[in-house]
């Protein structure tokens, strides 16, 4: 059985108190914990070993979802709370409309038990993943560790100057496709940045969040006329992290032409990857089979999945085209339920 290392637990009641605890800690000594579904297993594997954990579960300011102007979600809202919010449902209970991609992404994270504990803030700040890193201490010791923790070499690309561990958050690609923003607060100031600016392509320093900052909320603008969809490739349809995901959003005019669009890939780099060229190619055109195939081709071309997660990288690159096609067909209004069922089943 893997045991947690010893740590001190602090339980602040406000963002300010939590931020002051962070500010007064030695660099690297303290970490925030929300649901703990990512951090605690990492601590058991000694991938992350903070001496102090600052728990966020008692911070009431971080809870709550507002649909007043667009969408504002407290970082401490659990994925279950998000998915159960009836306000995402329209048209006789169906999940549709502009925020569909976020709902689909959140509802496919892990398992129901993990979604009951896991929060949207923790999901955005989720550690990057790699076959050589997501192992217990003894396994990693046997290969002399790796650059991301305790070692010097990257075993995925031995000449790489940086870690190539993979961004595996489901909600980040969806939120980027929706033009989302996050608020980060420290003991002295708060700033609001686009979700895309929260990430950088480095498997170790994958967030631009400063060590003294707390992600307090997520905002999505009012998206009249937009539709969105999220598709996820994983080995087990009931359970696993994404090894490829596609978030697509588009604003359609009355005659069905695309007025604006965004396509974002997840799990192909150390950050979510936008495909602006593919999205731009859709503008002014209806979502015809030809337009969708063109955008799918343009998205797949620059996608460079690494050989450090599940399935072969060549196959994952090949199916990128299919997953973009599925997402755009769903935006067009095609009934994709059977394809979703097949995608979930075929890989068991
Ligand atoms: C078996 C298994 C399967 C999983 N499958 C998936 C999956 O399919 N998709 C997926 O996306 N995730 C998956 N996860 C990971 C995890 O369950 C989710 O990402 C979850 O949303 C993490 O949220 P949390 O609140 O538990 O984060 P925590 O574990 O509490 O924290 C995660 C990280 O975020 C930081 N953090 C938390 N809250 C804040 C905040 N407010 N401000 C700043 N930093 C913060 C923590 O310091 C830590 O570094 C899986 C986990 C397991 C164990
Ligand atoms: S990509 Fe390289 S450095 Fe990063 S976790 Fe994997 S093996 Fe380690």
Written overview of the protein:
With 348 residues, the chain is an alpha+beta fold. The chain has twelve helices and 14 strands. Strand 8 (181-185) and strand 9 form a beta hairpin. It binds flavin-adenine dinucleotide (FAD) and iron/sulfur cluster (SF4). Flavin-adenine dinucleotide (FAD) binds at residues 31-39, 41, 56, 75, 79, 109-110, 114, 117-119, 121-123, 125-126, 168-170, 214-215, 240-241.
List key phrases describing it.
348 residues; alpha+beta; 5-stranded antiparallel sheet; 4-stranded antiparallel sheet; 12 helices; 19% strand; globular; binds flavin-adenine dinucleotide; binds iron/sulfur cluster
Strand content: 15-25%
Strand order of the largest sheet: 4-5-10-8-9
| Rg | 20 Å
General shape: globular
Q: Which ranges are low-confidence, i.e. pLDDT below 50, for 5 or more consecutive residues?
A: none
Mean pLDDT: 94
Give a quick account of the main beta sheet: strands, pairing sense, barrel closure: 5 strands, antiparallel
How many helical stretches? Answer: 12
Cα(first) to Cα(last) distance is 27 Å
What class, by secondary structure content? alpha+beta
- Helix amount: 25-40%
Could you say which small molecules are bound to this protein? flavin-adenine dinucleotide, iron/sulfur cluster
Count of DSSP strands: 14
Order of helices and strands: EHEHEEEHEEHHHHHEEEEEEEHHHH
């Amino acid at each position: 059985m893997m045991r947690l290392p010893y740590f001190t637990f602090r339980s602040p009641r406000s963002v300010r108190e939590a931020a002051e605890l962070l500010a007064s800690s030695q660099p690297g000594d303290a970490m925030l914990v929300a649901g703990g579904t990512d951090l605690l297993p990492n601590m058991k594997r000694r991938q992350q070993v903070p001496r102090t954990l600052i728990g966020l579960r008692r911070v009431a300011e971080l809870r709550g979802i507002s649909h007043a102007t667009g969408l504002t979600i407290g970082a401490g809202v659990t994925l279950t709370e998000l998915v159960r919010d009836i306000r995402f449902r329209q048209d006789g209970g169906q999940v549709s409309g502009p925020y569909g991609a976020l709902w689909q992404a959140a509802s496919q994270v892990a398992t129901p038990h993990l979604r009951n504990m896991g929060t949207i803030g923790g999901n955005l700040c989720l550690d990057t993943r790699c076959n050589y890193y997501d192992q217990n201490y003894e396994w990693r010791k046997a290969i002399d560790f790796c650059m991301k923790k305790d070692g010097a070499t990257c075993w995925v690309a031995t000449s790489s100057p940086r870690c190539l561990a993979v961004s595996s958050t489901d909600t980040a690609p969806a939120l980027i496709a929706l033009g989302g923003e996050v608020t980060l607060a420290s003991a002295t100031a708060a700033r609001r940045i686009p979700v895309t600016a929260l990430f950088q392509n480095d498997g170790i320093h994958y967030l631009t969040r400063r060590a003294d900052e707390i992600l307090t909320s997520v905002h999505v603008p009012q998206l009249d006329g937009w539709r969105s969809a999220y598709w996820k490739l994983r080995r087990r349809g009931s359970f696993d992290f994404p090894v490829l995901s596609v978030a697509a959003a588009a604003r359609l005019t009355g005659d069905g032409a695309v007025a604006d669009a965004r396509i974002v890939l997840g799990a192909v780099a150390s950050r979510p990857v936008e495909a602006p060229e593919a999205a731009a190619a859709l503008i002014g055109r209806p979502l015809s089979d030809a337009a969708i195939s063109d955008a799918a081709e343009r998205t797949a071309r620059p996608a460079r999945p690494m050989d450090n997660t599940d399935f072969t990288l060549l196959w994952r690159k090949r199916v990128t085209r299919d997953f973009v096609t599925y997402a755009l067909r769903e935006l067009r209004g095609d009934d994709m339920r059977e394809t979703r069922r097949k995608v979930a089943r075929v890989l068991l």
